[in-house]
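pinging the channel bc i need a second pair of eyes. not urgent but kinda urgent?? the chain im working w is below, pasted from the shared doc
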Amino acid sequence: MSTSSTPNFSSVITALRFPLILFVVAIHLVGEDLRLPQWGTSDWFYLYTTEFISHSLARIAVPMFFFISGYYAFYKKDWSQRSVWTIELKKRVKTLLVPYLLWNSLYIIILLSKTQLETRLGSGPHDPFYITSIPEFLSYYWNEVIVYPLWYLRDLIVLCALSPILYRLITWSRGYILLPLFVCFLMAWECSFAEFGFGTISFFCFMFGGYLGIKQIDPLEKLQRVKYIAGLIALATVFILPLLSQWSGYKTVESIYILTGSASALLLMQRVGRRAPEVLQRLSSLNQYVFFIYAVHTVLLVNWARGIVFRIPALREEGSGALLGYFLIGVLTLAFSFACYAVMKKVAPRVLSILSGGR
Protein backbone atom coordinates (compact mmCIF):
# COMPACT_ATOMS: atom_id res chain seq x y z
CA MET A 1 0.00 0.00 0.00
CA SER A 2 1.40 3.38 -0.98
CA THR A 3 1.67 6.04 1.63
CA SER A 4 2.74 9.64 1.81
CA SER A 5 6.31 10.49 2.65
CA THR A 6 5.92 10.97 6.37
CA PRO A 7 7.74 13.66 8.35
CA ASN A 8 9.47 10.76 10.06
CA PHE A 9 11.09 9.65 6.83
CA SER A 10 12.05 13.22 5.93
CA SER A 11 13.62 13.79 9.33
CA VAL A 12 15.51 10.50 9.12
CA ILE A 13 16.93 11.46 5.71
CA THR A 14 17.90 14.94 6.93
CA ALA A 15 19.69 13.50 9.97
CA LEU A 16 21.37 10.77 7.94
CA ARG A 17 23.07 13.13 5.49
CA PHE A 18 25.82 14.19 7.92
CA PRO A 19 26.90 10.64 8.86
CA LEU A 20 26.91 9.81 5.15
CA ILE A 21 29.22 12.72 4.36
CA LEU A 22 31.55 11.47 7.09
CA PHE A 23 31.66 8.20 5.16
CA VAL A 24 32.50 10.11 1.98
CA VAL A 25 35.42 11.78 3.77
CA ALA A 26 36.51 8.37 5.10
CA ILE A 27 36.59 6.98 1.55
CA HIS A 28 39.24 9.56 0.62
CA LEU A 29 41.50 8.99 3.63
CA VAL A 30 43.20 6.12 1.80
CA GLY A 31 43.92 5.36 -1.84
CA GLU A 32 41.41 3.85 -4.25
CA ASP A 33 43.18 0.50 -4.53
CA LEU A 34 41.88 -2.27 -2.32
CA ARG A 35 44.49 -3.82 -0.04
CA LEU A 36 44.18 -7.32 1.34
CA PRO A 37 45.06 -7.68 5.06
CA GLN A 38 47.46 -10.61 5.51
CA TRP A 39 46.96 -12.41 8.79
CA GLY A 40 50.12 -12.51 10.90
CA THR A 41 51.78 -9.47 9.33
CA SER A 42 52.63 -6.44 11.46
CA ASP A 43 50.16 -4.19 9.61
CA TRP A 44 47.28 -6.67 9.51
CA PHE A 45 45.08 -4.83 12.03
CA TYR A 46 45.81 -1.43 10.47
CA LEU A 47 44.95 -2.64 6.97
CA TYR A 48 41.82 -4.47 8.10
CA THR A 49 40.52 -1.46 10.06
CA THR A 50 41.18 1.11 7.32
CA GLU A 51 39.80 -1.18 4.60
CA PHE A 52 36.76 -1.93 6.77
CA ILE A 53 35.97 1.76 7.31
CA SER A 54 37.02 3.35 4.01
CA HIS A 55 36.35 0.59 1.49
CA SER A 56 33.57 -1.42 3.12
CA LEU A 57 31.46 0.37 5.74
CA ALA A 58 31.50 3.67 3.82
CA ARG A 59 30.40 2.11 0.52
CA ILE A 60 26.74 2.85 1.21
CA ALA A 61 27.26 6.64 1.19
CA VAL A 62 27.22 7.54 -2.51
CA PRO A 63 24.52 5.00 -3.53
CA MET A 64 22.32 6.33 -0.72
CA PHE A 65 22.79 9.91 -1.91
CA PHE A 66 21.69 8.81 -5.40
CA PHE A 67 18.69 7.00 -3.92
CA ILE A 68 17.67 10.03 -1.84
CA SER A 69 18.09 12.36 -4.81
CA GLY A 70 15.97 10.10 -7.01
CA TYR A 71 13.26 9.80 -4.39
CA TYR A 72 12.82 13.53 -3.92
CA ALA A 73 13.32 14.30 -7.61
CA PHE A 74 10.12 12.38 -8.42
CA TYR A 75 8.11 12.56 -5.20
CA LYS A 76 4.79 14.31 -5.92
CA LYS A 77 6.12 15.64 -9.22
CA ASP A 78 4.56 14.82 -12.58
CA TRP A 79 7.54 15.17 -14.91
CA SER A 80 5.28 14.66 -17.92
CA GLN A 81 4.05 18.22 -17.34
CA ARG A 82 6.20 20.86 -19.03
CA SER A 83 5.51 23.33 -16.22
CA VAL A 84 7.01 20.86 -13.70
CA TRP A 85 10.22 19.94 -15.46
CA THR A 86 11.06 23.47 -16.53
CA ILE A 87 10.83 24.68 -12.91
CA GLU A 88 12.72 21.66 -11.56
CA LEU A 89 15.51 21.88 -14.11
CA LYS A 90 15.97 25.58 -13.38
CA LYS A 91 16.38 24.68 -9.70
CA ARG A 92 19.02 22.09 -10.60
CA VAL A 93 21.05 24.73 -12.43
CA LYS A 94 21.37 26.66 -9.16
CA THR A 95 21.76 23.73 -6.79
CA LEU A 96 23.92 21.42 -8.94
CA LEU A 97 25.35 22.84 -12.18
CA VAL A 98 26.62 26.22 -10.91
CA PRO A 99 28.40 24.76 -7.82
CA TYR A 100 29.82 21.96 -9.98
CA LEU A 101 31.37 24.40 -12.45
CA LEU A 102 32.59 26.79 -9.74
CA TRP A 103 34.29 24.18 -7.54
CA ASN A 104 36.10 22.56 -10.47
CA SER A 105 37.14 25.97 -11.82
CA LEU A 106 38.35 27.03 -8.36
CA TYR A 107 40.52 23.95 -7.99
CA ILE A 108 42.01 24.38 -11.48
CA ILE A 109 42.91 27.99 -10.60
CA ILE A 110 44.44 26.89 -7.28
CA LEU A 111 46.57 24.18 -8.92
CA LEU A 112 47.73 26.45 -11.75
CA SER A 113 48.53 29.26 -9.31
CA LYS A 114 50.42 26.89 -7.01
CA THR A 115 52.58 25.67 -9.88
CA GLN A 116 53.31 29.22 -11.08
CA LEU A 117 54.13 30.45 -7.57
CA GLU A 118 56.53 27.60 -6.86
CA THR A 119 58.21 28.18 -10.23
CA ARG A 120 58.67 31.91 -9.57
CA LEU A 121 60.08 31.21 -6.11
CA GLY A 122 62.69 29.02 -7.76
CA SER A 123 62.00 26.02 -5.54
CA GLY A 124 60.65 23.98 -8.42
CA PRO A 125 56.96 23.00 -8.53
CA HIS A 126 55.95 20.06 -6.37
CA ASP A 127 53.42 17.98 -8.34
CA PRO A 128 53.30 20.54 -11.20
CA PHE A 129 49.96 21.11 -12.90
CA TYR A 130 49.68 22.39 -16.46
CA ILE A 131 46.93 22.55 -19.07
CA THR A 132 48.22 22.22 -22.62
CA SER A 133 45.05 21.97 -24.70
CA ILE A 134 41.35 22.79 -24.77
CA PRO A 135 40.33 19.08 -24.76
CA GLU A 136 42.48 18.53 -21.68
CA PHE A 137 40.89 21.54 -20.00
CA LEU A 138 37.38 20.31 -20.79
CA SER A 139 38.18 16.79 -19.59
CA TYR A 140 38.67 18.16 -16.06
CA TYR A 141 34.95 18.98 -16.06
CA TRP A 142 33.81 15.60 -17.38
CA ASN A 143 35.84 12.43 -17.88
CA GLU A 144 38.53 13.28 -15.32
CA VAL A 145 36.67 15.55 -12.90
CA ILE A 146 39.41 17.61 -11.27
CA VAL A 147 37.63 17.67 -7.88
CA TYR A 148 37.22 13.92 -8.09
CA PRO A 149 34.37 13.41 -5.56
CA LEU A 150 32.27 15.66 -7.81
CA TRP A 151 31.81 12.77 -10.24
CA TYR A 152 28.70 12.15 -8.14
CA LEU A 153 27.46 15.65 -8.93
CA ARG A 154 28.24 15.14 -12.62
CA ASP A 155 26.19 11.94 -12.70
CA LEU A 156 23.37 13.58 -10.76
CA ILE A 157 23.27 16.55 -13.16
CA VAL A 158 22.89 14.17 -16.11
CA LEU A 159 20.25 12.06 -14.38
CA CYS A 160 18.26 15.17 -13.42
CA ALA A 161 18.50 16.47 -16.98
CA LEU A 162 17.11 13.12 -18.15
CA SER A 163 14.36 13.09 -15.49
CA PRO A 164 11.48 13.80 -17.93
CA ILE A 165 12.55 10.72 -19.92
CA LEU A 166 13.28 8.60 -16.85
CA TYR A 167 9.88 9.48 -15.39
CA ARG A 168 8.14 8.19 -18.51
CA LEU A 169 10.37 5.12 -18.55
CA ILE A 170 9.37 4.22 -14.99
CA THR A 171 5.67 4.93 -15.43
CA TRP A 172 5.30 3.28 -18.84
CA SER A 173 7.14 0.15 -17.67
CA ARG A 174 5.21 0.19 -14.36
CA GLY A 175 8.51 -0.08 -12.60
CA TYR A 176 9.64 -3.26 -14.36
CA ILE A 177 12.56 -1.39 -15.87
CA LEU A 178 14.13 -1.78 -12.42
CA LEU A 179 14.45 -5.55 -12.82
CA PRO A 180 17.26 -5.59 -15.42
CA LEU A 181 18.89 -2.67 -13.65
CA PHE A 182 18.77 -4.59 -10.38
CA VAL A 183 20.37 -7.65 -11.99
CA CYS A 184 23.17 -5.51 -13.43
CA PHE A 185 23.68 -3.87 -10.04
CA LEU A 186 23.63 -7.11 -8.06
CA MET A 187 25.92 -8.97 -10.44
CA ALA A 188 28.22 -5.94 -10.65
CA TRP A 189 27.88 -5.74 -14.42
CA GLU A 190 29.23 -2.25 -14.84
CA CYS A 191 27.46 -0.74 -17.81
CA SER A 192 29.37 2.49 -17.42
CA PHE A 193 28.49 5.35 -19.70
CA ALA A 194 31.18 7.76 -18.54
CA GLU A 195 30.90 9.77 -21.73
CA PHE A 196 27.23 10.31 -20.89
CA GLY A 197 27.86 10.89 -17.20
CA PHE A 198 26.51 7.90 -15.28
CA GLY A 199 27.08 4.24 -14.50
CA THR A 200 25.19 1.20 -13.22
CA ILE A 201 25.17 2.10 -9.51
CA SER A 202 24.14 5.72 -9.97
CA PHE A 203 21.47 4.80 -12.56
CA PHE A 204 19.93 1.98 -10.54
CA CYS A 205 19.91 3.82 -7.20
CA PHE A 206 18.47 7.00 -8.71
CA MET A 207 15.81 5.05 -10.60
CA PHE A 208 14.91 2.92 -7.57
CA GLY A 209 14.51 6.02 -5.42
CA GLY A 210 12.54 7.64 -8.24
CA TYR A 211 10.14 4.71 -8.46
CA LEU A 212 9.39 4.85 -4.72
CA GLY A 213 8.97 8.62 -5.00
CA ILE A 214 6.49 8.32 -7.86
CA LYS A 215 4.51 5.73 -5.93
CA GLN A 216 4.84 7.86 -2.74
CA ILE A 217 6.01 4.81 -0.82
CA ASP A 218 7.59 5.32 2.59
CA PRO A 219 10.73 3.11 2.51
CA LEU A 220 10.83 2.91 6.31
CA GLU A 221 7.39 1.36 6.42
CA LYS A 222 8.32 -1.30 3.86
CA LEU A 223 11.63 -2.08 5.53
CA GLN A 224 10.02 -3.01 8.85
CA ARG A 225 9.24 -6.44 7.44
CA VAL A 226 12.87 -7.26 6.68
CA LYS A 227 14.76 -5.21 9.24
CA TYR A 228 16.30 -8.14 11.11
CA ILE A 229 17.39 -10.16 8.09
CA ALA A 230 18.71 -6.99 6.40
CA GLY A 231 20.70 -6.13 9.51
CA LEU A 232 22.20 -9.61 9.81
CA ILE A 233 23.21 -9.71 6.15
CA ALA A 234 24.66 -6.20 6.34
CA LEU A 235 26.78 -7.11 9.37
CA ALA A 236 27.99 -10.35 7.82
CA THR A 237 28.96 -8.80 4.50
CA VAL A 238 30.56 -5.60 5.79
CA PHE A 239 32.89 -7.43 8.19
CA ILE A 240 33.98 -9.99 5.61
CA LEU A 241 34.42 -7.57 2.68
CA PRO A 242 37.98 -6.48 3.60
CA LEU A 243 39.07 -10.12 3.39
CA LEU A 244 37.51 -10.71 -0.05
CA SER A 245 39.09 -7.89 -2.05
CA GLN A 246 41.05 -10.29 -4.30
CA TRP A 247 38.08 -12.64 -4.88
CA SER A 248 36.23 -12.52 -8.19
CA GLY A 249 32.86 -12.31 -6.42
CA TYR A 250 33.84 -9.30 -4.32
CA LYS A 251 31.69 -6.81 -6.21
CA THR A 252 28.56 -8.94 -5.84
CA VAL A 253 29.06 -9.22 -2.08
CA GLU A 254 29.65 -5.46 -2.01
CA SER A 255 26.35 -4.87 -3.88
CA ILE A 256 24.51 -7.03 -1.34
CA TYR A 257 26.05 -4.96 1.44
CA ILE A 258 25.09 -1.68 -0.26
CA LEU A 259 21.44 -2.78 -0.35
CA THR A 260 21.21 -4.24 3.14
CA GLY A 261 23.58 -1.69 4.70
CA SER A 262 21.57 1.21 3.28
CA ALA A 263 18.34 -0.31 4.57
CA SER A 264 19.93 -0.83 8.00
CA ALA A 265 21.24 2.75 8.08
CA LEU A 266 17.71 4.09 7.50
CA LEU A 267 16.25 1.83 10.16
CA LEU A 268 19.02 2.61 12.64
CA MET A 269 18.53 6.36 12.22
CA GLN A 270 14.78 5.89 12.69
CA ARG A 271 15.48 3.99 15.91
CA VAL A 272 17.83 6.75 17.10
CA GLY A 273 15.05 9.26 16.45
CA ARG A 274 12.64 7.28 18.58
CA ARG A 275 15.04 6.64 21.44
CA ALA A 276 16.96 9.94 21.42
CA PRO A 277 15.16 12.61 19.38
CA GLU A 278 17.69 15.22 20.52
CA VAL A 279 20.41 13.30 18.66
CA LEU A 280 18.29 13.34 15.51
CA GLN A 281 17.79 17.08 15.89
CA ARG A 282 21.51 17.66 16.39
CA LEU A 283 22.40 15.64 13.29
CA SER A 284 19.73 17.51 11.33
CA SER A 285 21.26 20.84 12.34
CA LEU A 286 24.59 19.67 10.85
CA ASN A 287 22.95 19.20 7.46
CA GLN A 288 23.91 22.77 6.52
CA TYR A 289 27.57 21.72 6.31
CA VAL A 290 27.08 18.57 4.22
CA PHE A 291 27.41 19.93 0.68
CA PHE A 292 30.29 22.24 1.58
CA ILE A 293 32.27 19.43 3.27
CA TYR A 294 31.59 17.19 0.28
CA ALA A 295 32.95 19.74 -2.17
CA VAL A 296 35.83 21.25 -0.18
CA HIS A 297 37.43 18.35 1.66
CA THR A 298 39.54 17.18 -1.29
CA VAL A 299 40.44 20.70 -2.46
CA LEU A 300 43.87 20.47 -0.79
CA LEU A 301 42.42 19.92 2.71
CA VAL A 302 42.84 16.15 3.00
CA ASN A 303 46.36 16.48 1.56
CA TRP A 304 47.19 19.23 4.05
CA ALA A 305 45.95 17.03 6.86
CA ARG A 306 47.98 14.10 5.56
CA GLY A 307 51.09 16.29 5.27
CA ILE A 308 50.75 17.53 8.84
CA VAL A 309 50.15 14.08 10.33
CA PHE A 310 52.91 12.38 8.34
CA ARG A 311 55.50 14.82 9.71
CA ILE A 312 55.53 12.43 12.65
CA PRO A 313 57.16 9.22 11.33
CA ALA A 314 55.31 6.99 13.80
CA LEU A 315 51.96 8.14 12.35
CA ARG A 316 52.81 7.20 8.77
CA GLU A 317 51.30 4.10 7.20
CA GLU A 318 54.41 2.05 7.95
CA GLY A 319 54.73 3.44 11.50
CA SER A 320 53.64 1.98 14.82
CA GLY A 321 50.91 4.63 15.20
CA ALA A 322 49.54 4.31 11.67
CA LEU A 323 45.96 3.77 12.83
CA LEU A 324 46.07 6.87 15.02
CA GLY A 325 47.45 8.78 12.04
CA TYR A 326 44.55 7.55 9.88
CA PHE A 327 41.96 8.91 12.31
CA LEU A 328 43.89 12.16 12.84
CA ILE A 329 43.86 12.82 9.09
CA GLY A 330 40.07 12.46 9.13
CA VAL A 331 39.68 14.73 12.16
CA LEU A 332 41.95 17.41 10.70
CA THR A 333 40.21 17.27 7.32
CA LEU A 334 36.86 17.87 9.00
CA ALA A 335 38.33 20.61 11.20
CA PHE A 336 39.75 22.39 8.14
CA SER A 337 36.39 22.04 6.37
CA PHE A 338 34.46 23.53 9.29
CA ALA A 339 37.03 26.32 9.62
CA CYS A 340 36.74 27.20 5.92
CA TYR A 341 32.96 27.22 6.22
CA ALA A 342 33.07 29.52 9.27
CA VAL A 343 35.49 31.95 7.62
CA MET A 344 33.48 32.13 4.41
CA LYS A 345 30.23 32.57 6.30
CA LYS A 346 31.83 35.49 8.13
CA VAL A 347 33.55 37.28 5.25
CA ALA A 348 31.73 36.09 2.11
CA PRO A 349 28.31 34.62 2.97
CA ARG A 350 26.98 35.25 -0.54
CA VAL A 351 29.86 33.37 -2.14
CA LEU A 352 29.37 30.54 0.36
CA SER A 353 25.70 30.34 -0.56
CA ILE A 354 26.49 30.13 -4.28
CA LEU A 355 29.20 27.50 -3.77
CA SER A 356 26.75 25.48 -1.65
CA GLY A 357 24.02 25.67 -4.26
CA GLY A 358 21.84 27.93 -2.13
CA ARG A 359 21.66 25.32 0.62
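so The first helix runs from residue 7 to 27. and The chain has a mean pLDDT of 90. — does that match what u expected or am i reading it wrong
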